[in-house]
Design a protein that fits this description.
With 210 residues, this protein is of the alpha/beta class. Helices cover 20% and strands 30% of the residues.
Length: 210
């Protein structure tokens, strides 16, 4: 199955200032890989049978990297909505806890919230078995990190420029990990922080804003 993701602006490699941007661009996905990146009309004409996901006035970028995963998933507690204590992580809410079940459930909720911010890779280390399992099952890419990393937010774009926040690039042959954001600025030039419209992991649409 081929899927064509269309956006007002596609930024295949924001970390490279020389990389071109693609107004009215698209990413063609086959399975878990990027088949092609280019102008929407060219790709649509070449693949008329592809399923279309048209994201409209949005910007498509590589997925984001959250460098604060160790603190966010091993120490912070992500509340269950049934607890009615809000949705923001509780700093150090798991520090000292030996309840692996509680830690694993918290990590799963935290990872799901990260997807809502366009995160497709998260930095460890992950020392708790329950957290390692949650990360592995989430599909997010686990990256090395430092255990003494500082606290940080779920949304990398709230503290980092796009060039520093992205993980990898969107390129033919690469894994289809990317995110779609509301666009701000002239020509829809920048993704808006505060959450994505959609996140794709290994070619699968794993998050879509309701």
């Amino acid at each position: 199955m081929l899927t064509l993701h269309r956006a007002a602006l596609v930024l295949p490699d924001p970390a490279d200032p020389t990389a071109p941007s693609l107004p009215d661009g698209a990413v063609l996905v086959r399975g878990d890989r990027v088949e092609a990146v280019g102008p929407y009309r060219e790709l649509a004409a070449a693949h008329p049978g592809a399923r279309l996901r048209d994201w409209g006035a949005a910007v498509l970028t590589p997925g984001l990297r959250n460098p604060y995963g160790h603190r966010l998933l091993e120490h912070a507690y992500h509340p269950d909505p049934r607890e009615e204590i809000g949705v923001e992580p509780v700093a150090d809410g798991l520090t000292g806890s030996a309840d692996e079940g509680r830690c694993g459930a918290s990590a799963r909720r935290g990872l799901q919230r990260m997807l809502g911010f366009g995160v497709t890779a998260v930095a460890g280390p992950f020392e708790r078995a329950a957290v390692r399992t949650a990360v592995a099952r989430s599909g997010l890419v686990a990256l090395p990190g430092a255990p003494d990393a500082t606290d940080g937010p779920l949304d990398p774009l709230s503290v980092l420029p796009l060039a520093a926040a992205v993980h990898g690039r969107v390129a033919a042959g690469g894994r289809a990990d990317f995110a779609v954001f509301p666009a701000v600025g002239e020509g829809f030039a920048q993704p808006s922080p505060g959450g994505c419209l959609a996140a794709v992991l290994g070619g699968r649409l794993v998050y879509r804003r309701r």
